[in-house]
Write a structure and sequence with these properties.
By secondary structure, the chain is of the alpha/beta class. It is built from ten helices and 16 strands. The protein has two domains: about 5-185 and about 300-395, Aminopeptidase; about 185-295, Alpha-Beta Plaits, CATH 3.30.70.360. The protein has helices at about 5-10, 10-25, 35-45, 105-120, 145-150, 210-225, 265-285, 305-320, 340, 375-395, and strands at about 50-55, 55-65, 75-80, 130-135, 160-170, 175-180, 180-185, 185-195, 200, 235-245, 250, 255-265, 290-295, 300-305, 325, 345-355. Strand 1 (about 50-55) and strand 2 form a beta hairpin. It is elongated and about 80 Å long. The two termini are about 15 Å apart. The mean pLDDT is about 95.
């Protein structure tokens, strides 16, 4: 049996070098030109074939060379993009690009997938079937996953299951966290333009005030959450911005609100979108105004497949020990573009701990001080290798 943790520790210095290089050169969604070139150079050096997808994304395949009847394919996915945040860490590998930073760990995800590729390719004579490597751009924005799927990354060879991971600063390094069922919420960003009729602030009776209407709508939207969705299924409606008016003594003609609806089931998502439109239209009608409502069908819910997740659990127990496997009770209301893949094939998504108070890697993701305990890199590589290898070598 291959000791994947030893194999990963043997390339730990290389992993740290790769991660720091990516961290110092962050790129935003669909701008990951340098990162993409680095990934392709690495794969070329390992003689792993690849293609470009979704602009800056990469899809590679490791073909097992062991003779056998197994023609299964497992895909491992990593995201590549950074965030528009100024890096304020005082470390030698801080971002060299002003206003851009890997503040969510995608540099670690890419590094882990490259490390797994190196080791699995080394042992490809020991398994049949295939390992697909998916490097996804733009996870932080629109998600590169839908484009990758449309361009056929789950076909030729057909992907039977997928596994993804995400580093997290709220779990100690050396542990992973898993969850049955729904892991992340679905999101529906919205823009609502409320159109009334403007006029002088001293004569509100001859206007239709969109600011008052917007205020009424914002308050009433919360009743959709508290009175129309089961309290056992969390949902969130956030109005993140409201813009209208230009002077103290003028009632404007229009107000624009933007925000996001978040739900945890397909049924709640459909119902919430329907009732959101109905409530706004009826409030506006009551005030003699009308609304233009635009709701985006964004990230779906992320569901973990029980059988694939059990493989993650088994790998964690073998490599980290049972005490370092944490079961998550509640889903996150955040979104994750891995959900697009998980809606197409059985999949599992888990969280890799990177917290270390002494190393100051306990700062929140999407903050200017975010960092990871780099000891987690080899752990992530070992886990991904173990999951993929055992999937292709056991029934």
């Amino acid at each position: 049996m291959i000791n994947f943790l030893n194999e990963a520790n043997n390339i730990k210095d290389e992993l740290v070098t790769i991660r720091r290089d990516i961290h110092m050169h962050p790129e935003l969604g669909f701008e990951e030109e340098r990162t993409s070139k680095m990934i392709k150079k690495f794969l070329s050096n390992e003689k792993i074939p690849f293609i470009s997808v979704a602009g800056t994304g990469v899809c590679a395949v490791i073909e097992g060379e062991k003779v056998g009847d197994n023609n299964k394919t497992i895909a491992l996915r990593a995201d590549m993009d950074a965030l528009p945040i100024q890096d304020k860490k005082g470390v030698v590998y801080s971002s060299k690009v002003s206003g851009k930073m890997h503040a969510c760990g995608h540099d670690a995800h890419t590094t882990i997938l490259l490390g797994a590729a190196k080791i699995l390719n080394k042992y490809k004579k020991k398994f049949s079937g295939n390992v697909k490597l998916l490097f996804e751009p733009a996870e932080e924005t629109t998600g590169g996953a839908p484009i990758m799927i449309k361009e056929g990354v789950l076909d030729n060879p057909n992907v039977d299951c997928l596994v993804g991971l995400h580093v997290t600063e709220d779990l100690d390094c050396g542990k992973i966290r898993v969850k049955n069922g729904v892991v992340h919420a679905a999101s529906n960003p919205f823009i609502v333009n409320i159109i009334g009729s403007g006029g002088h602030g001293a004569s509100p009776h001859i206007t239709v005030d969109p600011i008052v209407i917007a205020s009424t709508i914002i308050l009433n939207l919360q009743t959709l959450v508290s009175r129309e969705i089961s309290p056992l299924n969390p949902s969130v409606i956030t109005v993140g911005s409201i813009h209208g008016g230009s002077a103290q003594n003028v009632i404007p003609e229009e107000v624009v609100m933007t925000g996001i609806i978040r739900t945890l089931t397909k049924e709640d998502r459909e119902y919430m979108v329907k009732r959101f439109k109905e409530l706004i239209d009826n409030v506006c009608k009551g005030f003699r105004a009308h609304a233009e409502i635009m709701i985006e069908e964004s990230y779906p819910c992320l569901y973990n497949d029980e059988k694939v997740l059990d493989r993650v659990r088994k790998a964690a127990k073998d490599i980290l020990g049972e005490d370092n496997l944490v079961e998550q009770k509640n889903p996150s209301m955040g979104v994750e573009s891995f959900a697009y893949f998980a809606n197409e094939r059985p999949a599992a998504f888990y969280f890799l701990g990177t917290k270390n108070v002494v190393k100051k890697t306990d700062k929140p993701a999407h903050s200017s001080l975010f960092d990871i305990d780099e000891d987690a890199l080899s752990l992530g590589v070992a886990l991904q290798c173990d999951i993929a290898y055992k999937y292709l070598t056991t029934m």
